[in-house]
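User: Geranylgeranylglycerol-phosphate geranylgeranyltransferase. Structure?
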Amino acid sequence: MEKLKAIIQLIRPELPLAGGICVIAGQIIVLQNLPSLYVGLLGFLTGFFISSAAMVTNDYFDLEVDRVNHPQRPLPSGKISLSEIKVLTAILSILGFLTAALLGPLTLALSIFLWVVAIMYNWKCKETGLLGNVMVAISVTGFFIFGGLSVGGLINGIIWIFGALAFLFDLAEEIAGDAMDMEGDKERSSKTIARTHGKKYALTVSSTLYSFLVILSLVPLIMGWLDLKFLYIFIPLDMAIIYLALKILKTTTAEEGRKRIRQLFLTMTAFVIIFVALSLL
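Assistant: Predicted structure:
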């Protein structure tokens, strides 16, 4: 039982669950309907397993840092060994590749690409600043694209727009988050935009990315790819993003900044859920 608890701690199931849900969302965005149970389940499991493998390897590569900052984590506390974490990573990765392969060769290739991006980020790129931010944003975007690919929808303009929105949102969030974590990043010698160019510059870049997101969000409506009923959720989303981005830009404390970033995350999460629900009506 203790070993199982340690594994759950390593995987952080809420994040792999989010990965699986992003795949399902990508499928629904393309189909404007629910996928078949078979395709939906395989897509969800791929997102879950690949994300879980990424979470586990994060602890593997962060072992020395966690010995100091998070000694209670499963690996530094001895609840799970290095050999066990390697086996767990292999099992999760193979399961993710198998479920992706059952959806087709292209989905398998994309799952391997997303796995490699996650491993490289955890291993070498976490302290690289902008490159690391971009890699995280690619990972999030990739699950939406994977969902569209799994139902043959990459020629659908909407999935690419949503992929771009996810990329811009996550990149802006990562850069803003780094600006709030400057002290911790100093200890890790991270080359974030905030550390190399200053907090104000980083928050300006983040706000600019949020502005591009707002403009891009109007494209599906302007092009007629979406019914006008979606206008009722895009307008509140854009207004909320503009309001919160300005609040982040003017923030005076890291605690306040993190609060606004979380509010933005919850706003976007609610938007995706409502968008998917409206697509099914």
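The chain has a mean pLDDT of 87. The chain has two domains: 1-150, 156-281.
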